[in-house]
Amino acid sequence: MVARYGNFVTYDPPLTPLTVLLWVLPLAAIVAGGWIIVARTRRRVRLRREPLPADTPVCGARAGWGVYVPGAVIALAVGAGSYALTGSYPQVRAWQQATAQTPGLLARALDPQAQPLNEEEMARLALGLRTRLQNDAGNVEGWLMLGRTGMVLGNAGTATGAYANAYRLDPKNRDAALGYAEALTRSSDPEDNRRGGELLRRLVSRDHTDIRVLSLYAFSAFEQQRFGEAVAAWEMMLKLLPADDTRRAVIERSIRLAQEK
């Protein structure tokens, strides 16, 4: 997302050479223009104070503001050029468009009858949600939606951060707890995996009949080589699922695989 819309979407843009250039070039243009104006003014004052020879022809009309036009044009050109190089106008424009499209994209995402969002639209929705949440950081549902969007996009950082905020705001919210646990278990960081497993263990202890919680817990335990816990969770799932459920075959294969470890 940073590559598409620029560093400003992180709300903590880094100090880069281009950022410095953005400030230095306009300042240099202003200083240069001011120096030209001061130099011309001093020259006119000096010429007025010097006595003129008797045969010196009378000067024409005093120079007007036109003498400053070249300096002003240079300053404007330098400022425009520096903004074109470092201002990321296309990215800012894309950000503004994503923010304006957020309500429509969100409505489509929540409507099961609407056309599913493609990857580009999901990215714009994520950007729009992040922008909204900067001004509405207490919106649990908004963080949950951003977390789901991050999971669909495969953006682990966005998903984990969004679910963490939702869980922090409402620890008793099942969707927040489960989403946060799932994001942690899918992380490449072993410490995140451990924390996700602990959270799933607490969720299982509260409700032994939640198929999704049991499934995530079994997967997490298997990935962390806690094969006994994984088998216990899968066996509990088999007791809860109907006899004709197609998931039973997959679970039975998983149990056999874990028992062979």
Automatic annotation (TrEMBL):
SUPFAM superfamilies: TPR-like. Residues 91-248 form the Cytochrome c-type biogenesis protein H TPR domain. It comes from the Bacteria. The chain crosses the membrane at residues 20-39. One of its GO terms (molecular function) is metal ion binding. This is Cytochrome c-type biogenesis protein. One of its GO terms (biological process) is cytochrome complex assembly.
